[in-house]
Design brief:
Largest sheet: 6 strands, parallel
Structural class: alpha/beta
Order of helices and strands: EHEHEHEHEHE
Bound molecules: NADP nicotinamide-adenine-dinucleotide phosphate
Helix content: 40-55%
Radius of gyration: 17 Å
Shape: globular
Strand order of the largest sheet: 3-2-1-4-5-6
Strand content: 15-25%
Distance between the termini: 32 Å
Number of helices: 5
Number of strands: 6
Length: about 200
Amino acid sequence: MDISGKVMVVTGASSGIGAATARAAASRGARLVLAARNQERLDELAEEIGGALTVATDMRRPDQISRLFEAVIDRHDRVDVLVNNAGQGLHVPVEQIKIDDLIAITELNVYGALRAMQAAIPLMRAAGGGSIVNVSSGTTQMANPVGTAAYSATKAGLNMLSRAARAELADDGIAVSTVYPFVTKTEFHNKLRAGSMSTAGSQL
Ligand SMILES: NC(=O)c1ccc[n+]([C@@H]2O[C@H](COP(=O)([O-])OP(=O)(O)OC[C@H]3O[C@@H](n4cnc5c(N)ncnc54)[C@H](OP(=O)(O)O)[C@@H]3O)[C@@H](O)[C@H]2O)c1
């Protein structure tokens, strides 16, 4: 796939998989738009990769997602690739899941990703196509996702949004992909909404 010159929006670009994705895409000539809450980290990464638009964005906030895409249109007037990567984990047994925690990670892992897709789709369609990459989780593929029920439920929701969108958007030339990372050394496991790998009794 030739991504040289393509406008690529990466959410959760301030660390981990999102930052690594941005670095890899920049090295192949993509024009990056970096989104996450931590503006300072986004600016550092932008400098490292030779320039990028950075937009501090809380992906739980619909107004901030709208502002992100307005900034993209102002700068580039198009979106070719959206990497819906921002996400947070929650590792507690089913019996102890707090609904407020589940709501918070659903707002980020499902609603935030959906809103970004809904902002990007008409722009991609108008440009004749594009690519949406949704970062899910290997926990949704495990037979016994012990301790990750709430988190994997949100990512399973994202999987189904991806599957339906893939079929719905095929005729528009918009590819929808789902990535299933397994345990990856990032800040993710230190920034869980609640619980920990050990308290969850997780087999990960
Ligand atoms: N690491 C793993 O083992 C693993 C396994 C399976 C799936 N994943 C998935 O991979 C994706 C990337 O995670 P990672 O491992 O790279 O973890 P990470 O290093 O913790 O990165 C998470 C990213 O999401 C951003 N983020 C968190 N809350 C946000 C919010 N409310 N609004 C906007 N951005 C927000 C963070 O930036 P700010 O704090 O600056 O906002 C950060 O850039 C996630 O969707 C995660 O569920 C990871």
